Amino acid sequence: LVQAMKELDIEGLRKRSEADAALSERVAEDSTRAFLLQSLDLKSDPPRWRLNLDVLAEEMHKILSWPAVEGRYQGRVLFISGGGSDYVLPDHRPVIKGYFPAARFVKIPGAGHWLHAEKPREFESTIAVWLGAGN
């Protein structure tokens, strides 16, 4: 995604719809493009990305990896993921439980990575139940 953003010719773009159409050649999912294009500043002259795409590309391996940390958090923790997301997989649960022994996991069907935007009501009700259960 970062590479697609870097390679997008944004000079001369005036409308977000133009950027969306151009980015659709590399990024098929509408919601992903909408998320990425929030960081495009078309009012700037020339248009620019608000993100430092070079640093993101260079450091992506760190962003996507699990940090090596010591310690454990014994309190309640809820991991919420979208059913269509691969961010929190069943294979990850033993490692997560090593750091957060009281962790619970919930998947929201029909949501991807940005489940709070894709399924806001389901996300909200999941949080409400979780917070209510802690009282």
Can you tell me about this structure?
The longest helix has 14 residues, at 120-133. With 135 residues, the chain is of the alpha+beta class. The chain has helices at 2-7, 16-23, 30-37, 53-64, 93-99, 115-118, 120-133; strands spanning 40-41, 48-49, 77-82, 103-108. The strands form 2 sheets. Strands 1-2 form a two-stranded antiparallel sheet. Strands 3-4 form a two-stranded parallel sheet. Helices cover 44% and strands 12% of the residues.
Give a brief rundown of this model.
The protein is of the alpha+beta class. Helices cover 44% and strands 12% of the residues.
> Which outline best applies?
elongated
Helix-strand string:
HHHEEHEHEHH
Oligomeric state of the chains present here: single chain
The helix count comes to 7
Global structural class: alpha+beta
Helix content: 40-55%
Give a short account of the largest sheet. 2 strands, antiparallel
Topology:
Elements: H1 2-7, H2 16-23, H3 30-37, E1 40-41, E2 48-49, H4 53-64, E3 77-82, H5 93-99, E4 103-108, H6 115-118, H7 120-133
Parallel strand pairs: 3-4
Antiparallel strand pairs: 1-2
